[in-house]
Amino acid sequence: WYQRRVRVQMPKVIFIPCARSHRFERREIEVFEEVKVGRSVARCKTSPDNAIFDCKVLSRSHAVLWYQDGSIWIKDTASSNGTFINNTRLSRGGEESEPFRINSGDEIQFGVDVMEAKKKD
Fold first, then answer.
1. By the 8 A CB rule, do 40 and 56 touch?
2. What's the pTM value of the predicted model, to 2 decimals?
């Protein structure tokens, strides 16, 4: 009797900072369940194996990624500053988007830089 072990490779998302993004270390996250993308808060901190970032332009619950029917999908979860695929915003601010299929090589952007208004003395 022969038993063979087979490791099934899970689909993964690779987060790589671009020149104009918030700085973070490259992350490779296997998508075996829904992956939450969001801002770091007290109960949910950044880690090499999650999509939580210490970045002010992200909402606490910004977007979700999942694997279905051979593809990775993304949906903005009513974030304030938006989720973009190849510079196209998925929904208006504060509105949940429809699911979008991610293709290899797509550039995904979470949020846009916001300028803080300073009070005049």
1. no
2. 0.81
pLDDT 10s digits, 33-82: 999 999 999 888 989 889 999 888 899 999 999 999 999 999 999 999 99
Separation CA 84–CA 65 (nearest Å): 13
The reported pLDDT for the residue numbered 112 is 77
pLDDT of residue 18: 77
Report pLDDT for 91.
Answer: 95
83 DSSP β-pair partners: 110
Cα–Cα distance measured from residue 39 to residue 57, given in angstroms and rounded to the nearest whole number: 8
Cβ partners under 8 Å of residue 56, min gap 6? 39, 114
**Tokens at residue 119, please?**
């009070």
Instruction: Tell me how far apart the terminal alpha carbons of the chain are, to the nearest angstrom.
Output: 82
Tokens (6 digits) for 86: 């190849």
CA distance linking residue 19 with residue 66, whole number of Å: 26
Q: What is the Cα–Cα distance from 5 to 13, expressed in whole angstroms?
A: 25
* Residues 6+ away with beta carbon under 8 Å from 121: none
